[in-house]
Amino acid sequence: MNFFNEAKSLIKVNIRDYGMYIALFLIMLTFSIMTDGLFMSSRNISNLLDSAGYIAVLAVGMTLVIVIRHIDLSVGFAAGFLGAIAAILLTQAGVPVYLTIPIILLLGIVVGLFSGVLVAQIGIPSFVATLAGMLIFRGALLQVTEKTGTIIIKDESFNAIGNGFIPSIIQVNGLHLLSLLVGLVGILLYIYNEISTRRNKLKYNFEVVSKGIFTVKLVFVSAIIAYITWILAGYNGFSWTVVIMLLTVIIYHFLTTKTVLGRHIYAVGSNPEAAHLSGINVKKVTYIVFGSMGMLTALSGILFTSRLQSATTTAGTLFELDAIAAAYVGGVSSAGGVGKVTGAIIGAIVMASLSSGMNLLGVGISYQYMIRGGVLAVAVIFDVMTRKQRG
Question: What is the pLDDT along the chain (391 residues), one digit of tens a residue?
């Protein structure tokens, strides 16, 4: 009985963290039943994760921007513009892929730092500064694509980023071996990280959950990773998009939870004045977060352009709103100082799952927008309510 009481108490206290996982599970279960299992087919899950990739990458950066109490509305058309520049470098300038990608990522950092300077140095509200950026990049995208309308990319290496899969090496009973090994490594890394974190907390006499709850959590999460890996391995394995998305999460999760910079970001978000008085360079943190957002915007543009195998005049439309929605659904707080990059990925998958499930059920696009808007509204209401309860 103590086990169930502890579990109930944990969920109640950490509802912000666990709520999105519960919501994702319920969404997947509902759509699986309504589509007679088609929703959880290998092909659909693979397509769902690939379609979530470029938004998930944006959502990771957007989470940190919202954590420090700002917003970035320019990321959508900036991603479209940078994707178009990548297409021009590849098709018209003849620049090889291995140079094009770092050039675009560096351009992204410059774009992000420009917004950071307007916000941190000049003091323009981020909403206004990035709204100006949105209009500028919208015009820039039209400018570079107006002659051809669509820039077709025929470079197979570049197109593989958004459409290719990691090699299978050999297949075991129709399953991709390398993908199975990647999933196994993921499970081992997760277990190692959780055990290491628990040991450190015990070392410094922090409160931890009981061994029973801890074991159930390890088994449950490992089972989910194993199941998703098995599903993907039965199709074409892990796509490069999913690999890039996972690497982004791992790197940013490490940066935000294990480094001084990560602690400074959350300190600035919780209380900028107190952070400044404690010696934290708030302007520097703002530059870093916006520069990071710019780099992830460039990466998102590369993923989207590669997936389409072309750059179009409408690329990037509403990306910023999808990223903001994914961040809020993933548990970031509108008041700043709260939010995890892992939550941003879950938020992106929740939104992609809604779209995928509704498409399979033949729900009209007008209703899809209304339902997704409703989900975002519920997420923000949930955030406000939990803050009031804690306050």
Answer: 466 776 666 666 566 666 777 788 888 899 999 999 899 888 999 999 999 999 999 999 999 999 999 999 999 999 999 999 999 999 998 899 999 999 999 999 999 999 999 999 999 999 999 999 999 999 999 999 887 788 999 999 999 999 999 987 777 777 888 999 999 999 999 899 889 988 888 888 887 777 887 888 889 889 988 999 999 998 888 999 999 999 999 999 999 988 999 999 999 999 999 999 999 999 999 999 999 999 999 999 999 999 999 999 999 888 999 999 999 888 888 788 888 898 899 899 999 999 999 999 998 989 988 988 888 888 778 777 776 666 5
Structure tokens at 96: 């090889």
Per-residue DSSP letter, 172: E
Angle CA 37–160–244, to nearest 5: 70
> Residue length, the chain?
391
The DSSP string of 270-322 is H-HHHHHHTT--HHHHHHHHHHHHHHHHHHHHHHHHHHHTEEETTTTTTHHHH
DSSP 121: I
Nearest to 294 by CA among 69, 51, 56, 76: 76
Write out the two tokens for 192.
């190692």
Contact predicate 75/297, CB 8 Å: yes
Give the integer Cα–Cα distance in Å for 243 and 286.
28
Token reading at 198: 């628990």
How far is the C-alpha of 48 from the C-alpha of 354, rounded, in Å? 10
Query: Which H or E run contains 339?
Result: none
pTM equals 0.92
Whole-angstrom Cα distance, residue 328 to residue 372? 12
